[in-house]
Design brief:
The protein has about 260 residues and is α/β, with parallel strands linked by helices. It has two domains: about 150 residues, SPOUT methyltransferase, trefoil knot domain (Alpha/beta knot, 3-Layer(aba) Sandwich); about 80 residues, Trp Operon Repressor, Chain A, CATH 1.10.1270.20. Helices cover about 40% and strands about 15% of the residues. The chain has ten helices and nine strands. It has a five-stranded parallel sheet with strand order 2-1-6-5-7. It has a two-stranded antiparallel sheet with strand order 3-4. A two-stranded antiparallel sheet has the order 8-9. The protein is elongated and about 70 Å long. The two termini are about 45 Å apart. The structure holds S-adenosylmethionine (SAM). The site of S-adenosylmethionine has 19 residues, from strand 5.
């Protein structure tokens, strides 16, 4: 998969791209990241890419000309691939969105700085806007790396273990079950016996129940969209009765409806 990244700070990317899964994905030709310094398309001798906002107010705004020129030269206008504007005003990045994007061969992203972009970039250049969450960072470089990583680890072959992403939180609509490794007892805290039993059917059921319980406790909102079997619903019903949490009423209604 090819990413074209338009940024004022290309120098912040290499260290992360040269580490672990992204490095291996690049070495295995699963990932290519081309970094484009927007300043290279500035037209004045000071290589200006920002200006004061019309109407006054603090801060600077990214000018449209260098960004349009950069995009035009690299991927054309209209762009030859989806062009994503990284902005806190965009649709929040989810695992489902990352899955969708991981099926594409080519993506381009624009990283903002300062107070953000001249509105004409948003209106007339990009195909979509993505946010990495409801908070504001100083630039789009970390959001770009987050997007690249979230998408790349879903490309078949990018993870050492091909099953690795399957049970990850959100992938199957639930949070992941608790994980343990050696030693079997640490400071008196023991690994659940069932995980050491070798009974794979029982382990699968325990993991599924733990994922349901964890999701119920930490992110009950996810249960409303999750694919739940009859056994899942029975387990949840019992867990809700035992926990009597504030969230239990809507969850009890959900279970009732799904069981109908
Ligand atoms: N004034 C803008 C607003 O209120 O929407 C925020 C500008 S922010 C200081 C500068 C740049 O950082 C943005 O243009 C965007 O590229 C990036 N950025 C900051 N927070 C982000 C987020 N949550 N998701 C994606 N990009 C973000």
């Amino acid at each position: 998969m090819l990413f074209d990244v338009f940024t004022l700070f290309p120098e912040v990317f290499p260290a992360y791209l040269e580490t672990s899964i992204l490095k291996r994905a690049k070495e295995n030709d699963l990932l290519e990241v081309r970094l484009h310094d927007i300043r290279d398309w500035a037209t004045d001798k000071h290589r200006t890419t920002d200006d004061t906002p019309y109407g006054g107010g603090g801060g600077m705004v990214m000018k449209p000309e260098p960004i349009f020129k950069a995009v035009e030269e690299v991927i054309g206008i209209p762009p030859s691939c989806p062009l994503i504007l990284l902005t806190p005003q965009g649709q929040t990045l989810t695992q489902q969105k990352a899955e969708e994007l991981s099926e594409l061969p080519h993506l381009a992203v624009i990283c903002g700085r300062y107070e953000g972009f001249d509105e004409r970039i948003r209106q007339h250049l990009v195909s979509e806007e993505i946010s990495i969450g409801d908070y504001v960072l100083s630039g789009g470089e970390l959001p770009a790396l987050i997007l690249i990583e979230a998408v790349t680890r879903l490309i078949p072959g990018a993870l050492g273990d091909p099953e690795g992403a399957f049970d990850d939180s959100f992938s199957c609509g639930l949070l992941e079950y608790p994980q343990y490794t050696r030693p079997p007892a640490f400071r008196g805290w023991e690994v659940p016996e069932i995980l050491q039993s070798g009974d794979h059917g029982a382990i699968d059921r325990w993991r599924r129940n733990q994922a349901l319980l964890r999701t119920l406790q930490k992110r009950p909102d996810l249960l409303f969209k999750a694919d739940l079997s009859d056994a899942d619903l029975d387990y949840l019903e019992q867990a809700v009765q035992e926990s009597e949490t504030a969230a239990s009423d809507p969850i009890i209604n959900l279970i009732k409806k799904r069981k109908e």
